Amino acid sequence: MVDRPAAAGFVVHEVAGLRLRAPDVELGRPSVFAHLWPAGVVLAEYVAGALATTLAGRRVLELGCGLGAAGLAAARHGADVVLSDAADAALALAESNAHANRLTVEVVRLRWGRLPAALAGRFDVVLGADVTYDARERRRLLATIEAALAPGGTAWLADPGRTSRRELEHHTALAVEPWARFPPRAGLVTGEGNEDRNVVLYRLTSATGSSSVTAPEAASAGARAARRGSAR
Q1: Stronger pLDDT, 136 or 225, i.e. the higher one
Q2: For the chain, percent helix, then strand, then coil, each to nearest 5?
Q3: Separation of first and last alpha carbons in the chain
Q4: Which candidate, 24, 57, 150, 194, has a CA 20 to 30 Å from the CA of 117?
Q5: What digits encode the pLDDT tens for the residues 85-144?
Q6: Based on the structure, what is the number of domains in the chain?
Q7: Which DSSP helix (H) or strand (E) runs through 73?
Q8: H helices then E strands: how many in the chain?
């Protein structure tokens, strides 16, 4: 991952084969969507790596997309992608990044717990990076994932230690598995002060069926080894 200066007032993040333009604004709650977060880098790189060969023609939803890193990485590998966020400014930014990377995606304003009927049961893959930071929203987040997934679908959540397997399981009927653990990414303003906080990648699937979208066996073997050290 590389950050490069852009036009005045902007910065460009290079991650997972994408160039993501973001406003150069002070870090804070009102601008949370305008920054690249360590979990976003991890998920985008995982999508562009281990999941890349599984995505062509798949329907993918990114929740809380912000700059759109993970969803755009999926689109770059042939997925039919919907980027969603509750903030209109985030959707405008994600759509701009899609155009800049010559990718076609759909953008939808979405509040968790209020999934439109047209999106219900539609997605083979749901992605979320650092979307569990508000404990009050976790139940609605997981209900949205359950409602959005097609039968046999898989959700991937990249989380920098804000939640746990036990808490996720408390809020969902999906099977929750800590899939892999990744070291924090250096050089991000959003990671300052959290250099010792690993990002855990959780895989969520129907508790009664196997997923139709999995990582290649070679990647899965490495992930299984990493899972043995993952948080419970």
Answers
A1: 136
A2: 35, 30, 40
A3: 29
A4: 57
A5: 999 999 999 999 999 999 999 999 999 999 999 999 999 999 999 999 888 899 999 999
A6: 1
A7: helix 69-76
A8: 6, 10
The verdict on residue 99 lying in a domain is yes
With 0-12 / 13-18 / 19 or more C-beta atoms within 10 angstroms meaning exposed / middle / buried, residue 40 is buried
Secondary structure (3-state) at 164: coil
Global confidence as pTM: 0.84
Supply the DSSP symbol for 49: T
Given a cut of 50, whether residue 145 has pLDDT beyond it is: yes
The single-letter DSSP state of residue 54 is G
Structural domain contains residue 9? no
Is 157 within 8 Å of 132 (Cβ atoms)?
A: yes
**Boundaries of domain holding 83:** 35-227
Query: In this structure, is residue 41 part of a structural domain?
Result: yes
Paired sense of beta strands 106-109 and 175-182, if any:
unpaired
Tally the residues of the chain.
232
**Dihedral sign of CA atoms 220, 15, 176, 206 in order:** negative
Neighbours of 129 (CB within 10 A): 32
Does residue 21 lie within any of the structural domains? no
Q: Which of 11, 16, 6, 14 is nearest to 34 (CA)?
A: 11
| Pair of tokens at residue 162 | 């804000």
- Tokens read off for 198: 């690993």
The enclosing domain of 55 has a CATH number of 3.40.50.150
Q: Say if CB 6 and CB 16 are below 8 A apart.
A: no
